[in-house]
Design brief:
CATH class: Alpha Beta
Protein name: Carboxylic ester hydrolase
Keywords: Hydrolase
Pfam families: COesterase (PF00135)
InterPro entries: AB_hydrolase_fold, CarbesteraseB, Carboxylesterase_B_AS, Carboxylesterase_B_CS, Type-B_Carboxylest/Lipase
Number of strands: 14
Number of helices: 17
Radius of gyration: 22 Å
Helix content: 25-40%
Distance between the termini: 68 Å
CATH topology: Rossmann fold
Enzyme class: hydrolase
Length: 497
């Protein structure tokens, strides 16, 4: 049999070979979630006769066009509700048991796909001798509409369809990846933003236990879940916008997908996401992790120095904002906490955009990452912490080391289309990419990210908080976010009092 033809549990797949790497694209890991399967947990895929073509990507999950995502290399020219597919890159289909790296894409739970040019697994496969898998999962209203309180048992897990899709993909990997040269007993999940937040949920999700052994969380942790009550309010608002009576939810299964996506744009960002539904996700992931749900999973976690910059730089509300406008933006974001925050972080001096970015970077990204690390350390789990400090020169340097900037460095895809628009073209980029790419490979291989081309990287602990700073001169710094961390601890004490 040709090396590009692999036999999965469901049938034969014809892939491609490019240079030394084999690739199979658009492999179904679940039944198409359409019609009566909308808002339901994924089901096993159907088998097929003959050899299925696996040389092109599947459609991506239905989503709205978003300029920021296109800037990140997201292509939505081919969209369809039938989107539950994955892609595999491997050095060979021999019986060598290679580490498996499974990428969960970001996009605020409403955008993105596993087929972005940034997520080309060829370099990982060729340089690291690892098998790489990227996946699609249901997004937005299709992946996270919590109908359980409204529609009863039939919709018990509808608020977590997107997460359950990820579990189904991981189960497919357990059952099939050996045929692609991978080791089902050495699986590392890695993801960025909503992808990392998804991994935070998977760490506390009963059905995901045992399906992966290591986890890399880039700019996301285990804090981003909704209570059932909040998710039900969002669902009620969307049903009203769609003019669907709570007693007639089956109408949702017949509606044109465009109508559903359009309605979901009416709710604020991050309103649709994982839900503590009491069934698939019985409790908050942080609570489950504190109890030891992930005590067998080694963690590599980190953030970017200036995460929030990209969101405020492109926000028209910040353009030419005067002092009154700036104050109202702070008030809208921080509400009653503003006096405490103002006192702790600005010494009651004038509020500005730089402080706003710093506060949201700390509250959304850095603090949850530190919390997850501490929960894992309490169980004696090895944890490594990093911070990405390399600053992009584009837009006059305003973005600095912003959200998502590390992705093409991790993947070693700096030469892909669109990447220079975000990173610039400086030759100093490649050595940073070489360091990160190899660290991620080593972590997937052994659970330890140390490499010969980096300073010695100690495990994270609460005494030293040793953190690898990735930059043109990478270095270990102890507790690099100490000022923000201590101030946030003081703010949260006020919240509890």
């Amino acid at each position: 049999m040709s090396k590009t033809i692999v036999e999965s549990a469901y049938g034969k797949l014809q892939g491609d070979q490019i240079d030394s790497v084999f690739a199979w694209k658009g492999i179904p890991y679940a039944k198409p979630p359409v019609g009566s399967l909308r808002f339901r947990a994924p089901e096993l895929p159907d088998s097929w006769e003959g050899i299925r073509d696996a040389t092109s990507f599947s459609p991506v999950a239905p989503q709205t066009r978003r300029e920021i995502m296109e800037f990140f290399g997201n292509d939505i020219s081919n969209m369809n509700e039938d989107c539950l597919y994955l892609n595999v890159w491997s050095p060979s289909t021999d019986n060598k048991k290679r580490p498996v790296m499974v990428w969960i894409h970001g996009g605020a739970f409403v955008s993105g796909s596993g087929s972005s040019s940034w997520y080309d697994g060829a370099s990982f496969a060729a340089q690291g001798d690892v098998v790489v898998v990227t996946i699609n999962y249901r997004l937005g209203i299709l992946g996270f509409l919590h109908l359980s309180e409204i529609g009863g048992e039939e919709y018990a897990t509808s608020g977590n369809c997107g997460i359950l899709d990820q579990v189904a993909a991981l189960q497919w990997i357990q059952d099939n990846i050996a045929a692609f040269g991978g080791d089902p007993n050495n699986v590392t999940v890695f993801g960025e933003s909503a992808g990392a937040m998804s991994i935070g949920v998977l760490l506390g999700l009963p059905s995901a236990q045992g399906l992966f052994h290591k986890a890399i969380l880039q700019s996301g942790a285990a804090a981003n879940v909704h209570s059932s009550a909040r998710a039900t309010k969002v669902a009620g608002r969307l049903l009203a916008a769609l003019q669907v009576e709570p007693t007639n939810l089956s109408k949702l299964e017949e509606m044109p997908i465009e109508q559903l996506i359009q309605a979901s744009d009416l709710v604020p960002p991050m309103s649709l996401g994982p839900v503590i539904d009491g069934v698939s996700l019985p409790k908050h992931p942080e609570e489950a992790i504190a109890e030891g749900s992930a005590k067998d999973v080694t963690i590599l976690i980190g953030t970017n120095k200036d995460e929030y910059n990209i969101f405020s730089v492109f926000d028209p509300e910040w353009k030419n904002a005067d002092e009154t406008k700036v104050h109202s933006l702070f008030e809208k974001t921080f509400g009653p906490l503003l006096p405490v925050i103002s006192k702790q972080f600005s010494n009651n001096e004038t509020l500005n955009q730089e402080l706003f970015n710093k506060l949201l970077t700390a509250s959304i990204f850095t603090t949850p990452a530190q919390k997850l690390s501490e929960l894992q350390i309490n169980h004696g789990v090895p944890v490594w912490m990093y911070r990405f400090d390399w600053e992009t020169p584009v837009f006059g340097g305003a973005l600095k080391a912003t959200h998502a900037l590390e992705i093409p460095f991790v993947w070693n895809t700096l030469n892909k289309a669109n990447t220079e628009d975000f990173t610039g073209s400086s030759p100093e980029r490649q050595p940073v990419a070489d360091q990160m790419h190899l660290a991620w490979i080593n972590f997937a291989r052994t659970g330890d990210p140390n490499t010969d081309n980096l300073p010695e990287w100690p495990k994270y602990d609460v005494s030293n908080r040793s953190t690898m700073i990735f930059d043109t001169e990478s270095a270990i710094v102890n507790d690099p976010n100490s000022e923000e961390r201590i101030k946030w601890e003081q703010v949260t004490m006020v919240l509890k009092s």
